[in-house]
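subagent[fold] <- orchestrator: predict structure for attached chain, return tokens only, no commentary.
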Amino acid sequence: MVCEILCAVVWALSKAPTWEKLAEKCKGFVNIGQVDCTTDKAVCESMEVRGYPTLKIIRNGKSVEYKGAREMQAFLDELSKKFGDKPVLSPLEAIDKIKQEEVALVFYSYAETLPEAVEQVISDIGLELPAVRVKGYWPDRAAYNIQNSPSLLIIKDGKVLEFTGSLSDQGQMLEWVTKEQHPMVRSIDPNSLRKMFELDEGLVVIKVGSGVTRASDAKSFRNFAEPILRRTSSVLFFGIMDADDSEISQWFMFSGKVDPKIVMLDLKTRKFYSANVYGTPIGFNYKEIQDAIETQKAGKLTGFALKFNNNPSLMTLSLTVILPIVVIFAVICYFVLTGEPDDEEKKKV
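subagent[fold] -> orchestrator:
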């Protein structure tokens, strides 16, 4: 399987030896490349590069940003996870995954090989969702609502969802996985928020606060999410969001430490709502969240425009202007510190 890692390189020139060694180690397995955003602006804009350095993993036309350690072993571990053979787990190991509430795509079967259509679906979705194989006798299969073997499963929110269509219909499987792959309560960061605006319609209910990123935050919020998502079609999903992130705090106009609270975001109008019809904060309970959703839908809530800027070219432009100035300044400092070049050096120049 061939992929590329794109590196938006200006800062990372000092990391070139590591990058070259990584390319050598991955030869024939993964293509490693780099892009200079000061010269290849169009590529960087199309890849939504907003900071430097940015590392992207690309597969089947889809890309995800690498956020791990910038070290050789960390790179190799991530590439092996994304593009190596899918791990084969025992049913007990799969049950551990369910208890840990990880989200994963699972193919359960006694067979040695994957059906071709299933293998292609796992390949297509592999960047977005960890995929594993489970082989062997699954004890108490009915307790996890697994009806068939072989089965294509998604583990999420501590539950198992089973695909009930044909395992030879690649399109049907891919549509099901795409629909079901996200947990009920997602972790929201600036990149995922930008992606949400591509949907262009719908309401997102968010628990936001300083340091709100833990699994326990998502778990407690899920109690409200499930009945509300069953009841209304206007809410796309629930999320948790860290108010200490600099971009998040700027967009939502947060300042200082933010105590956990409910914020509703309308993707169509790009307005957010943090108070109910009486002007008081929306409470952490089913009734108050449901009432706020209904009054927002009726146009009775006061919203605030998100201070959102999705123009990646600004950073590219600033870098294009600033970098030459820095280089010129460095050259001037060099000659000031070392003195005027002699006549021989001038001739060479």
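orchestrator: received. Logging for downstream: The CA atoms of residues 183 and 255 lie 29 Å apart. Confidence is low (pLDDT under 50) at residues 1-14, 312-321, 345-349.
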